[in-house]
Amino acid sequence: MVLANRVWSILGGLGLLAWSGQAMAGMAPANFGAMYNFAAQGKINVLKNAVDRGMDIDSVNHNGFTGLCVAIYRQDYAAFKVFKSLGADVRHSCVKKIPKERYEAFVNGASGQRAYAQRYAGGGAAAGGYRQDYGNYQHNRVSQGRFGHVDYNPDDEPLISSDTAWTIGGVALVAGGIAVALSGGGGSDDDNPEASIISGLHGVPGAPYNVADNINKNVLESSSADQSRYWGVYNPDNKNIINRKDITVNNITTNPDDNKDHWGGIFAENGYVYNTGDINIISSGKYGKGIMSCVVSVYNPDNTACIVNAANPVAGDIYNAGNITIAADQSMGIFSSTTNQITNSGKITMTGDNNSGIWVLGKGNVTNNGQIILTGTNDTFLAGAMTAVWISEGGNIVNNGEIKVTSAGSGGIGVYTKDGSISNNGKITLSGGGTAVKVYKGDVTNNGSIEVEGSGGIGIKVDNSGKVVNNNNIKVTNGTAGIKGAGDEIINAKGAIITTIGSGTGILTDGNVTNNGMINAAGAGISGAEVTNSETGMIIAGSTGISGSTVTNDGIIEASTGISASSQGINNGTITSKGTAMNGGTSGSLENKGTIKAGQTTTATAMITKSGDLTNSGTIINSGTVMDSQSGTITNSGNISNEGTFSTWDEATLQTNTGTITNEGSVITNILGVLGYMTSQTTDGETTYTPATLTFTNSGTLTVNNGNAGVYVAGGHLETDDDGNVTGKTESTLTFNNTGTITVNNTNGGPASGVMALNQATMTNDGSIILKSNGTDPVMMGMWADNGTLTNNKTIKIDAFDSTGGTAGNIAGMYVRKGEIINNGEIIINANNAYGMYVKYTTENWETPLEADDNTVYAQATNNGLIVINGENNIGMVADGKNAALTNKGTIEVKKPNVTDVFHKEGDEVTEAGTCSEFICLKNNAQYINSGTTTSAYAMNFDNWGEGRVVLGKDGVFEAPEISGNVIASADIVTGSNEEIYQTEKAFTGEDKGIVVDSGSYMFNASLIDNGDGSKDVVMERKNFNEVTDKASVADFLEQNYVNGNNSEFFDMLKSAGSAGSFSTLTTQNLGLDFFPNFAKQNLDVMKSLNRNINNTVLANADLKDERAIVGYDNLHREQDGTSELAGYRDDVNTVYGIFDKKYDNNLRYGWGLSYSKFNSRYDRGGKRNENIIQVFAPIIYENNAYQFISTPRLGYGWGDYTRFGGAGVFSADIDSYYYGLANELRHEIDLEYLVFEPIFEFNILGLYQGSMKENKQLDIGSNNNLSVEAGVGLYAKKTFKFGEDELRLRAGGTVYHEFGDPYATMKANMYGMSGEYNLNSYSVQRNRAVLSARAEYQHKQANIYGQFNKYLEDDGGYEVNAGLNWSF
After folding, report:
1. Phi, then psi, of 1049 in degrees rounded to 5
2. Is the peptide bond before 255 cis (omega within 30 degrees of 0)?
3. How far apart are CA 1220 and CA 749, in angstroms?
4. Measured between alpha carbons, how far is 390 from 437 in angstroms, rounded to an integer?
5. Confidence bin at 1083 (pLDDT 50/70/90)
6. What sign does the dihedral 100-101-103-107 (CA atoms) show?
7. Phi and psi of 252, rounded to 5°?
C-alpha cells in the first residue's frame, strides 16, 4: 500500500509538473484541486518540487482565489500552513473577498498556543487529504477518505470553476486520488499529517497507546469489577490512545435492561483519543459508546454520568477521522465529560432509538467536518436523545460537514449547546420533526444548509437569549418555524432564504428581527418585537407577513395579512395582501408611505386598528374598507382607490367609531366614502352601546361612484324600559369640515348624498359637494342631519334631471330636522321635485314633547347666499311645523317653481301642489323671514306659500310682477336704536294686489306707504308704554328711558315681543316683577310654620321635671302655585333646634332655644334661592288643669344668595335678612272622654327686614321692612292611644287668621344703564285666611316622631308638609 501511495503521488506530481508550464492566470478545476489536496494532506515536498519547476503558489481559480484564500475560507489550518510555508502571499487581494464572519472565525480559531499548534499541524475544517472524485464532484456528490470528508459544493463556495479544460496531469491526479482512497491514506512519514494532528491534541504526558490489532469482542455484562471486559479498548495505563484499527464490540447480553450505562469501543480516562479506524458497536440493548472520554476518580459502568476528578477536570480531546457505526438504542457515537475539543472528520452512523452522535457532559467545543447520521425514534425524556451533537453545559459548535437525523416520535436535534455559539457551514437535515440547530443561550450563524421535515420542526432555535444570523438556506416542511428566537436579534441576510412548506412561521421570536433576504412561509413570515423588512427583503406568507410591536417594511410583502403591529407599523415598500394589509390590533398606529394592494382574494380592510392612528401618504388599492380606526385618527394625504362594492350602509372606505378622519389626498371608491359606525359590547348579559363620534376633515378629493354617500354617520342607540317604551337616546355625532371636493355619482339610479348624519352634526362646507344621479326618485342631500348646525360657505351642486315624479323633499341642498342650516355660498340644483333648503321640525319619541303654547323656533333655515334651481316643480326653501322657520337674506332663483297644475308625491300619496304653489313652502304654521331679496318671475301671493307666516325682515325686499297676501313686518326692523318711527324702503316692488302688513312687534304699529313708482315702503311707529302695560310705574320708567335713548339692547329685546302676553312675560322676567315679591311671603310663612311646630313640641311635653331639654329635627316642604304676575315656588326647609326650660313654680316655666334652618327655594321660571337662618328665642310657658299658654319672643339673621333667569341673561346677588317677633298661643282642652276638643287663640307679631340686593349690571333692589300683626282663633280635635308606655297622638282642625298689619311692603328697583326706579309686583294683603291642619305623633319614652299636613285657604292656595323627630331629656 505504501508503494501504491508513492506511485500515485508521483503521478499526481507529474501532473502538476506538466501543468506548471501553462499560463498561471487561472487553473482548471482538476489542477487547482490537485494543488489544494496536496496542501491539505501536508505533502509539502510534492508542492515544493512543483514550485521549484515554475508553478506559481499564488495561482488562482476562476474566482480569483489562491489556495491560501481557499484554506482560510474553509477554516483549513493544515492547508494554510503549507501554502504559507511555500511563500504564498498572505495579503493577496482575494483575502478581502472572504466574508467577514469566515475570516474572523479563522483568526479566532487559531487563538491560544495549544489550539494554534493543533490546527496549524493539521485538523480543522478539512483536516486530512483534500481528495476529490471529480466524477462525483461534477454531480455534487461527496468524496470520503480516511482523513475526512470534504463537500466541495460548487453552489456555495467561491473556489469552484466551470472550466471543462482537463490536462493529462489532471487525469493522472484522478487516478492517484482513487488509489489514495482505496489504500486508506498514508504515504511516507514525511507527508503524513497525523503527527501534526496528534501533536495538537490535549491529553496526558507520555507516549500514547497505539492499538496494534483489529479488535472483535463480545460483551456479556455482569457484576464483574473488570471494566475492560465492556470495552474494545479500555484506558490502557491511563495513556493517550491512537487507533488506526477496526474495533467491533457486540453486546450479547440477552436482557437489554441488564445493560450497563457505559460500554463500547474506546474508553479513555484522562488522555486524548485519536481514531482513524472503524468502530462498530452492535447490540440489541442500549447504552453503547463508540468513543468515551471521562475524567473520573472512580469509574463504574453503572453510573449514568462521569464523576469529575477535581484535580484534572478536563478530559482529553477526541479526534475521529474513521467510521463509527452503532446499531443499538440510547447510545452515543462519541461521549465525553468536559473537554477542550472534539473533532469529527469521519463518519458517525447510528441506528436505533434515542441515540446521540456526539454528547458532551459539561463543557467543550465540537467541530464536525465529516458526517453524522442518526436513524431511529425519540421516545424518551433523556437529554440529547436523537441529537447529532449535544453539549450539556456550554461550548461552541462548528459544523462544516453533514448532519442527518431521521427520527420518529418526538423528533430529533441537529446540534445543541446550552451556552455558546453555533456555526453551521455545512448541511443539517432532519426528518420526522425536531430542531436542526438549538442553543439555550448563545449566538447562531448559518452559512450552510438546514432542512427540517416533520411536525414541530424548527430550523434554528434559541431558548433564552442569543443573536441569530442566517446567511444561507433554511427549509422547514410541515413544521413550526424556520428560526425561533428568544429576546435577542435575528438577522436574515441578503441573499439568504428561509422556506416553510405546509405549515410554519419563517421567523418566530419575542426579540427584534431584520430581514434582508427572502422568506417564503406557509404560515406567518415573521413574528417578533421590532421587525424590519429591508429594501432587499421579500416575504411571502400564507398568513401574516410580519407581526410585532413595531414593524417597518421597506421591501416586499405578499401575504394573507401584510403587517400586524401592536404599537406602530410603517410601510415604505409594497404590501400585497389577500385580505388586510396592515392591522394595528387594539392600539397600534399604522402608516403607509408605500404601496398597498389589499383584498386580493377576499373583501377585507386594508388598514385597521381599534384605538391607534392610521396615516396614508402612499397608494392604497382595495376592494373593501381601506382605513378603519374605532377611536383613533385617520389621515390620508396619498391616493386611495377602491373598486369594490359595499352591500350595506355598514361599510365604507374610511371608517371609525369615535375617531378623527382627515383626507388631504385622493380617495376614489364605490357606494360609501366615510362612515361613523356604532359599536356594542355585552358583559354579564348587559350590552353597552357606543354610538359614533366622528370628526371628518377633507381638504383633498373624495369621489364615490355608484352612490350612496360621501360621508355617513349611523344613528345612535334608543333606550327602552322593560315594556319596550322609548325612554331616551344616546346619539351619534359628526363634526364635518370640507375645503376640498366631495363628488358622489350614482349611475345606477340610486341615492347620491354628500354628507348624512342620522343624529347630531356640526357641518361646515368651504369646498365643493357635487352630486349626480340618473334615478327617477333618488335620495340626494347635499348636507343632511337630524339635528345640529350645517353651514355651506361655497358650493353644493346636484344634477338629477331624471328625477321626474319623484318624492318631494328627497332631493335637497340642505336639510335638518332640529337645528339650523345656513347657506352663505351657492346651492345649484338641476333636478325636478327638489328643495333648495329644507327644515322640518317634529318631536321624536326620545324627546320631551313641547308644550302646546311653545312657539320657539327649533328648526331654522337661513339663506345668505344664492339658491338656483333649474327644473320643474321645485321649491327654493321649505319649512314644516310651527317651530320651523325660513330666513332669506340672499337670492333665490327658481326657474319653474311649483304651480297649481303640477302634482307631487309625499310618501305613497299623490296630491296637488295646493298650499305650496310657489317657490317658498310653509307647512303647519312654519314661517319665512326675508331679510334679503326674494325675486320671482311669477306673481307672488304670500297666502299661497302654505300654512305659515311670511315675515319681512330688516332690509328685506320682495320683487315680483304682482304681490299680494299677508306679511308680517319683523321686529328686527325696529332694533338697534330707540327711534319713534322706522321705515323700510321699497320693501315691495311690483303691483299691489292686496298686500296686508301686520307688525311683528307689540310695541309698534305697521303700515304701507306708496312711493308712486311701483314700490311701497313699510313704516313702523312706536306705541306709548302706557298702551302696552297696565303697570303705571313700569310704563313711566320704560317711557322715560326709551325717550332718553338709554339701554337700547334692553328695548330691542322688548321689541321682539309679538303679542301682549309675550311683552308682559319679557318685562316681568327681566325687571324681576315676578321674582322678588315672593321673598317676604316665603320667609314669613316659614317663620310661622316653625313657630307652630315649636309650640306643639313644647306644649306636648308632659314631663314635670324642674329642668327639661328637647333637641329635634324638622323638615318642611311647601308648594305655592304661581299667578300671572308672580312665579310659583317650592320650598324645602331643614331645621335643627334645641329648647331648654326651667320650672319657676307649679304653673310657670321659662327657658330659651336656638335653631338653624337651611332654606332652599326653586321657582317656576328656573330661578333659585338659598338662605341660612339662625334664630334665638325665649319661651315662657304657663299651664294649669284647664289652660296652656306660651309666649315666645325671637330674633334671627339670615344670609344667602339667589339666581334668576331673564331674556338678557342669568343674574344673581347676595341676600341678607333680619327676623324679630313675638308669638302667643292659648289652648284650652274640653275632654268628652272619647275625644278631646281644643279651642286655641293666637296673637303673633312677626317682622322681616330685607337688605338691599345688587346684581351685576342689571337690577338694584332696595331694602324694605315687612311686619305682620295677626290674630287667630281655631278649633282642634285630639285623640291619644296608649300602647304600654308608648303613645300615639292625633290632632286635626283649623285656624282662622286676621291680619292687622302690612306684611308685604312694596319693593322698588332700578336697572343698570337706566334712570329712575319702578315698583315691583307685590302680594296684596289678604286680611282673612285659614289653615287646615292634621298632625300625628308617636312617642316612645323620650323619643317623639311626627308628621303634619297643612292646607292654606287663601287666594293663591298652596300646602305644606312637615315631618320630624325630637328627643326629650
Report:
1. -65, -40
2. no
3. 83
4. 10
5. very high
6. positive
7. -100, 15
- In the numeric block, the cell 317657490 is attached to 919
Coil, strand or helix: which one is 185?
coil
What count of Cα atoms within 13 Å lies in the side-chain half-sphere of residue 199?
13
At residue 1270, the 3 state secondary structure works out as strand
Q: Per DSSP, what are the bridge partners of residue 1359?
A: 1119, 1351
Residue 1271 burial (CB count, 10 A):
14
Which of 354, 322, 318 shows the shortest CA–CA distance to 338?
Answer: 318
Q: Give first-to-last CA distance, the chain, whole Å.
A: 132
The DSSP code sequence of 621-652 is: EESS--EEESSSEEEE-SEEEE----SSTT--
State mean pLDDT over 1213-1237. 93
Name, of 1-15, 136-150, 1301-1315, 1319-1333, the range with top average pLDDT.
1301-1315
Cα angle, residue 11 at apex, residues 10 and 13 outer, rounded to 5°: 60
Helix (H) or strand (E) holding 786: strand 780-792
Closest CA to 755 of 829, 810, 652, 673: 673
User: Alpha helices, DSSP H only, in 184-295?
Assistant: 194-199
**d(C-alpha 1199, C-alpha 1251), whole Å:** 10
Dist. CA 31–CA 161, nearest whole Å: 11
Strands 859-863 and 884-888 come out as parallel
Q: For residue 1300, is it left (φ>0), alpha (ψ between -120 and 50) or beta?
A: alpha
Nearest to 1204 by CA among 1035, 1078, 1050: 1078
| Rounded Cα distance, 888 and 528, in Å | 63
Does the pLDDT at position 643 exceed 80? Answer: no
- Identify the sign of the CA torsion 192, 196, 202, 203: positive
Summary mean pLDDT of the chain: 84
Q: How much is the pLDDT for 7?
A: 39
The radius of gyration of the chain's CA atoms, rounded to the nearest angstrom, is: 53
Sign of CA dihedral 1162, 1168, 1174, 1178: negative
pLDDT digits (tens, 9 = 90+) for 1002-1038: 999 999 999 999 999 999 999 999 999 999 999 999 9
The residue behind cell 427549509 is 475
What does pTM read for this prediction? Answer: 0.63
Q: What is the DSSP string of 1197-1244?
A: EEEEEEEEEETTEEEEEEEEEEEEEEEEEEEE-EE-SS-EEEEEEEEE
What is the maximum span of the chain, computed from C-alpha positions, in angstroms? 158
Residues 6+ apart with CB under 8 A from 494: 516, 517, 536
Do residues 1226 and 1265 make contact, with C-beta atoms less than 8 angstroms apart?
Answer: no
Indicate the angle between helix axes 29-40 and 168-183, nearest 10 degrees.
Answer: 40
Question: For residue range 932-959, what is the model confidence (pLDDT) as tens digits?
Answer: 888 877 788 888 888 888 999 988 999 9
User: What amino acid is encoded at 891 in this protein?
Assistant: T
- Sign of the CA dihedral 25, 29, 35, 41? positive
| H or E element in which residue 479 lies | none
CA distance 668 to 780: 19
Q: Which residues face 859 on adjacent strands?
A: 819, 884
Residue 661 pLDDT greater than 90, yes or no = yes
To which residue does cell 354628500 refer? 754
- Answer yes or no: are the C-beta atoms of 809 and 898 closer than 8 Å: no
Closest CA to 408 of 383, 436, 380, 433: 433
Residues 415 and 384: their CA atoms lie apart, in Å, by 9
Q: How far is CA 1161 from the centre of its chain?
A: 47
d(CA 902, CA 1221): 80
Alpha-carbon distance of 989 to 891, in angstroms, equals 15
d(CA 1068, CA 1126): 9
Q: Please report, for residues 1131, 1293, 1331, 1347, 1354, the alpha-carbon distance to residue 1334 in angstroms, rounded to integers and kept in the order given.
A: 20, 7, 10, 8, 18
The arithmetic mean of pLDDT across residues 140-146, rounded, is 30
